[in-house]
Amino acid sequence: MKQLFYQKIILQIFILIFFVFQVSAQAVINPSAVDDDVEIGIVEHLDDFLPDSISLINENGEQVWLKDVIDKPTIINFVYYRCPGICSPLMEAVAGVMDKSEMVVGVDYQVLTISFDPSETIDLGVRKKTNYLNLMNNEVKVEEAKKGWLFFTSDSASIVRATNATGFKYKRTGNDFLHAASLTVVSPNGKITRYLNGMFFLPFEWKMAIVEASKGQSGATLNKVLRFCYSYDPVGQTYVMNITKISGTLILFFAAVFLLFLVFKPKRKKI
User: 7, 44, 235, 270 - which has most CB atoms within 10 Å?
Assistant: First the structure.
C-alpha cells in the first residue's frame, strides 16, 4: 500500500514537472507566441526577411535603402547616439569583439548601427563612430572597420518598420528611451538568422553567427535558451535572474528524485 501511495505521488509530480517544462519549452521554441505583447525587450523573428521599404541616411548624408546596403552577413544594432545608458557599453562590446575576432569586418561581414531616435542627425553618429574605432587596437581591423562598420540615422516611419521587423521593442520616457541590448544577425539576402543579446560577446559566438548567416542558416540563440532563467528589468535596463522560476524547478526536480529514492531503495531484510 505504501509503495502504491508513493507511485501516485511520483506520477502527480512528474505530470507537474512535465507541464512546467512544456510551458518553458514553448517560450524557448516560439518566444514570439508569448512575447508579442512585450513593451520593452526582444521578440525574435528568426527566418523572417527584412522589408524592402526601410530608408536610411548614411555617413555622407545620402539616402539609401537597407536592402541595398546588405550584401554580406550583416549584424544590425539599434541604439540612439546620445543614450546615457546601455548603448555605450554595447558599442564598446561590439568594438571589442570585432577587434578580437578572426573574422574581418568589411570583408567577411559588416555591422550596421542605426539610431532609432528620428531626431538625431548623422553627424552625431559619425562622431560616435570615431570614438568607438579608437577603442580597437588592431590597426588592420580599424581600417577595415571604417568601411565595414556603418552608422545611420532614419525617419520615424522607417525606424518603426525596421524595429518591428527585427522585434526590437523600446519605449520613450521623456527625452530618452528604455530598451534592451541586442544585435540582429542577417544573411546577405536579408533573412534574420540569429540574435546576440546582452553586452558581452565571445569571439567564437560572433564567428559562428556570421558563418551561419553567410549560409542563411538560422540558429537557436544562447540567450533565448536562457530566457526561462532570466527576465528583462526595464528599470535597470539589464537581464536579471528569475529566482522564482529557477528555485521552483529545482524544488520539483529534487522532490522527484527523493521520492524515486524512497520507492526504489533496497528493502531491509528482516532479521
Answer: 44
**CATH number of the CATH domain containing 78:** 3.40.30.10
Q: Kindly report the length of the chain.
A: 271
pLDDT at 185 exceeding the cut of 80: yes
Residues 204-234 pLDDT 10s? 889 999 999 999 988 665 544 444 555 545 4
Is residue 208 domain-shared with residue 137, that is, in the same domain?
Answer: yes
Whole-model pTM: value is 0.71
For the chain, what is the domain count? Answer: 2
What per-residue confidence (pLDDT) applies to 254? 76
Q: Dihedral of the CA atoms 148, 154, 115, 230 (nearest 10)?
A: -100
Burial of 69 (0-12, 13-18, 19+ CB in 10 A): middle
What would the pLDDT profile of 257-268 be if each residue is shown by its tens digit?
Answer: 777 776 666 666
> Which residues are bridge partners to 231 per DSSP?
240
The type of residue at 244 is T
The parent domain of residue 254 ranges over 2-30+239-264
